[in-house]
UniProtKB/TrEMBL annotation:
The lineage of its organism: Bacteria, Pseudomonadati, Pseudomonadota, Alphaproteobacteria, Rhodobacterales. One of its GO terms (cellular component) is cytoplasm. Pathway: Amino-acid degradation; L-histidine degradation into L-glutamate; N-formimidoyl-L-glutamate from L-histidine: step 1/3. It comes from the Bacteria. It is found in: Cytoplasm. InterPro entries: Aromatic_Lyase, Fumarase/histidase_N, HutH, L-Aspartase-like, Phe/His_NH3-lyase_AS. The gene is hutH. This is Histidine ammonia-lyase. GO terms for biological process: L-histidine catabolic process to glutamate and formamide; L-histidine catabolic process to glutamate and formate. Belongs to the PAL/histidase family. It is an enzyme of class 4 (lyase). One of its GO terms (molecular function) is histidine ammonia-lyase activity. The keyword Lyase applies.
Amino acid sequence: MLTLTPGATPLADLERLWRKDMPARLHDGARSAVAASAARVEQAAQGRAAIYGVNTGFGKLASVRIAPGDTATLQRNLILSHCAGVGAPLDAATTRLMMALKLLSLGRGASGVRPETVALLEAMLARGVVPRIPLQGSVGASGDLAPLAHMTAVMIGEGETLDGTPGAEALARAGLQPLVLGPKEGLALINGTQFSTACALAGLWRAERLLMGSVVTSCLSTDAIMGSDSPLDPAIHALRGHPGQIRVAALMRELMTGSEIRESHREGDRRVQDPYCIRCQPQVTGACLDLLAFAARTLETEANAVTDNPLVLEGAIVSGGNFHAEPVAFAADQIALAMAEIGAIAQRRVALMVDPTLSFDLPPFLTPDPGLNSGFMIAEVTTAALMSENKHLAHPCSIDSTPTSANQEDHVSMAAHGAVRLGRMADNLAVILGVEALCAAQGIGFRAPLRTSPRLARVVEAIRAAVPPLGADRPMAPDMEAAAALVASGALARAAGL
């Protein structure tokens, strides 16, 4: 059981929940603030003053007053009308993360929901009730309204779960009762950035793992083409000072230590400098590492934030704009840029290894019998296609906006678009790096009897346990899929001791 401390839950805890299907609950210390804010909303709902979302309509209809007897219907109608998402469903792990992020936000005691509402979310996480959340429909302002409405629909006995079970039936199977929404509760549940933030975090964690995989594959490629490790000299990187660059160079030095291939050509190497895709790996990958670290800080803040509207403060219930997901949109764009660049430089290393004019005596397309066999020729073409696709997908979403809700919501963040596309980019990047791993392992094999470093040798063993060396041509897709899985799962990084 993961205990969520509102305002202070680290990303490492949330990543464990996402990866390991853990139940989660709010820290007991948060419950008094939740109850107090609910009491203030209940009192306000009985008063005469117009309070947005408590006794008024929503969005452009905020000037319409709602009678006290209709507040429950108001909240239910809000959820039903906002269940307007379309497209494929969000995966179970990220849906559960979204629910946990909503718990964190509600647990700050500024949203006005009752303790029983929080308890239902906790019970759904504990008992495997996972709503079906369509991926499309949010513009990332006024909250992720449609995705969160599909989550809330199951809480009130409507909608359906990811396995297609109607919401009421899914709750009953779990021994739970549907919620009758109190004043403001529907609005509190669907107003917020939790869908965008959850998808961005999933993209971040996948990108971080893929980046470490790229450090490993880049070292393999350097040995495969008999590249120099001189550009990894720590003095070079200290003079520039970027922490990501310094770290990547240090990791690469460690991984390549003890390589017989490298030692074999220290003297008499006719090349003065390697191509940029070899020589500038720490500079590019390190910059990506720094960019991911910046995005992580933004998303950790957002994961612990209150992002619904209005907010229940000590002396008043106040309308604001915390639901605008601009910080998440910027973070998602940064993650996308990092993934695109990791893939771009890796693809150039693949191209280098298959090109006999550049690969320092490796056979054309890394096949032992070129001409009769095409070897990795079209696998490299596939990496070029995926690299190009990721470049297109990396176009910033945060600079886009379109007015919605009769121009009441006239500037939106598009954070959901920015975050959702990260999953597709990560899939593409895993294949690019998987192909690089296969090419590099094949190239290192051609250097025998010279051996790579002990740590990289363990990586080659892990690759060969899944994919045998390429002799005569065979279908490449299964090999590429297996190699991509090794990178995406972190298996190659683990084999290297990272």
